[in-house]
Amino acid sequence: MTFRQFAYRNVVRNRRIYAAFFMASIFSVMVFFMYSMLMFHPKIDDEFLREVAVSGMIVAEIILYIFTLFFLFYSMSAFLQARSKEFGLLLQLGMEKKQLNKLIFLETMLIGAISIATGIIFGYAFSKFFFMIVRELLQLESLPLYISWKPFALTMGAFFSLFVIIAMTSVVFIRDQKIIELIRGYWKNDELQSYSKAKAVAGIAMLLFAYGAAAFTSINVVKTLSIILPPLAALGTYFFFTHSVIFILHQVRKRKSMYWHRFNLIAVSEVTVKLRENANMYFIVTIVSTVAFLSVGTLTSLSSYTGQFRELNPLSLIYSSEINNPYESEHISLMRNELEEQGLSYTLVPFMIKQQTSSFSQYKVNILRESDVNSLAIALGLPIIELDSGDGMFIPYSEDSIKFLGNRNIQTVLEESNVPVSIEGVYPQMLFPAMIIGSNIIVVSDEDYQLISEPLEGRTMLTSSFKFFAFHVAEWERTKSIGLEIETQVTDAIYKEKYPDLPFYFENPGLNYSIIRATFSLLLFTGLMVAAVLLLAAGSFIYFKLYTGLERDKLQFEVLKRMGLTDQELVKIVNRQLIPQFFLPWGIAMLHSAFSFLSLQVIWSNLAEVSILSEMILVLVGFTLIQIVYYFLIRWRYIAHVRAS
Asked: Exposed, middle or buried, 3 (CB in 10 Å: 0-12/13-18/19+)?
């Protein structure tokens, strides 16, 4: 048998231990390759979409590469520790340390080569399906499968270098150990690890403080807390697994009535040993899971904004014009012609908005005419208003303003024209996008509107009033190509810093929605793929540790079987041992994420008045179901191996 054959047979013989490592490697390579295929796709012609796609893929590729390097390095170290007896025997039989290092290098590169080849094959096989999803997200006409050497070269180069790094550095874990230490094996003793009571209490206190601060934060301090709380929660999590858990289990061991009850002695003792030996690993699993939850939750909250976009932007096209705007007639005609060419039915409601000073607040207010507001309300399918002479009503400028202004009753005078108005209540729905006209908007009767004949103090009639054209299109998502020429003028003026001189303002919510939807959907899809890798790795960490100690567990359960342990009792003991190992890190990660989402809700409420409660519940429940399925799958395989002893 040659040295290379020996390395190959070592990999085959330890295939059960390497299975999760191999699968996670394949999945990472597959995802990386598909991202590379999209990044180099020649059919994404739109500059904005290409920038979004390429930027998203580059970030995802970097995250995947860094995390995969860390994950495979940690996994390889666990495998080498699990095979320490084997390495000790080889050294005792005369193998040199140099040969052992070569053996480990060959094994690692063999697994790496197979993982890369298999991952690329699966990646290319699923690329068409991947492109179909991305085509829908970016709303492209076609995104065909293609062949180019670039994605293959990038993937192979990235992962071959990754496996070389792992192969050359992983031998550090056994290089300095003596033969007797290797033969003794990974599990050295089961004595209860000492812990610091102060650190145990500090860990719990840090987590409680972080949770409390996140739950009761406000927009004024949320930015500061976003810098302070993550490292505090991370340190608290580390202390929790390295000290607090041991402290809690130590208290359980003191309660003899609980500790000596039925199978609790065996289960608690084993859990104590596993949590003690793997505290650092459980800390890593918790942080990785938290990052996965938060990435998906944050990106899902962005999709929540797209879901509520229409409520926040009830109009289909918006054109605001100064009285002396020379482009007005041309632009309105252009939009009407484009809508008709596309076969889109529409309703155009023009407004003449007058400005006056309110005697109540001494602030400028924008005045709308009742008949104009009712015309728009009818087009939008909303209730009309009926005002008597001298009456007025607030027009909401945001969702929150509906509640704030709902019970307001204000007596004011429009000072310049000396028109008294009694303002009662607020219109119950958003008629205009937030702050598009201003924050002080009232509607008055047609009679009172005609009485407003004087300009705002210090201005002329031309500068104290403006026109507003509201387009309602039932198929508003199809308006993304309407008014692109006008949009270009606005964009150029902003770019050249000449926007204040522009006599008009134009906004196309359909175009904005298509961009936001494509961007957020692509980011969410990318985040889901990355999160899948993170979660697979997090579960694999536990899998690795479970199976590296399998031989020891087999011996333990063999002794218990000889003492009369039944299969049902075996399942109960296994459940009590595995549930804390699977669900304690998961539970802490869920708590981290839930309280982080509360802080995120504060930010969203301030930015766009969007609720992400349903998205939070969906993400947390979805990941919990995945973990439960994963637990039963691993438990099934674990019990099968133990029973085979």
From this structure: exposed
Q: Which residues pair with 319 in a beta bridge?
A: 469, 506
d(CA 473, CA 479): 8
Q: Which two tokens stand for residue 608?
A: 């766009």
Strand ranges of the sheet holding 419-426, from the earlier edge strand across to the other edge: 409-414, 419-426, 391-394, 441-444, 364-369, 346-357, 465-473, 317-322, 504-507
Give me the domain span that covers residue 486. 315-512
The answer to whether residues 1 and 150 belong to one domain is yes
In the prediction, which pLDDT does 118 show? 94
Q: Is the pLDDT of residue 557 over 70?
A: yes
List the end-to-end C-alpha distance of the chain, in Å, as a whole number.
Answer: 30
pLDDT in tens, 309-345: 877 889 999 999 999 899 999 999 999 999 999 999 9
Statement to judge: residues 36 and 141 lie in one domain: yes
The CA distance from 147 to 40, in Å, is 10
Same domain, 178 and 206: no
Q: Are 13 and 110 in contact (CB under 8 A)?
A: no
Burial class of residue 96 in the structure, from the number of CB atoms within 10 Å of its CB (0-12 exposed, 13-18 middle, 19+ buried): exposed
- In a domain, residue 363? The reply is yes
| 617 assigned to some structural domain | yes
| pLDDT given for residue 24 in this prediction | 75
Q: Among 186, 215, 245, where does a domain finish?
A: 186
pLDDT digits (tens, 9 = 90+) for 477-498: 889 889 999 988 888 888 877 7
CA-based torsion, 118, 119, 124, 126: positive or negative: positive
DSSP labels, 263-322: THHHHHHHHHHHHHHTHHHHHHHHHHHHHHHHHHHHHHHHHHHHHTHHHH---SEEEEEE
Domain end, chosen from 148, 164, 186, is at 186
DSSP string, 73-105: HHHHHHHHHHTHHHHHHHHHTT--HHHHHHHHH
Residues 373 and 501 in one domain: yes
262 with 140, same domain: the answer is: no
Question: H/E element holding 402?
Answer: helix 399-405
Cβ(438)–Cβ(321) below 8 Å: no
Would you say residue 192 lies in a domain? Answer: no
174 pLDDT higher than 60: no
Long-range contacts of 58-65 (CB under 8 A, 24+ apart): 59/526, 60/35, 60/526, 60/529, 60/530, 61/32, 61/35, 61/36, 61/158, 63/530, 64/28, 64/31, 64/32, 64/35, 64/530, 64/533, 65/32, 65/158, 65/162
417 & 322 share domain: yes
Do residues 182 and 202 share a domain? no
Q: How many domains does the chain have?
A: 3
In a domain, 191, yes or no: no
Q: What is the CB neighbour count within 10 angstroms for residue 206?
A: 22
368 — pLDDT class (breaks 50, 70, 90): very high
- pLDDT at 191 (0 to 100): 45
Whether 25 and 170 map to the same domain: the answer is yes
pLDDT at position 193: 53
Q: Render pLDDT for 383-418 as a digit per residue (tens, 0 to 9).
A: 999 999 999 999 998 877 888 888 888 999 999 999
pLDDT value of position 601:
80
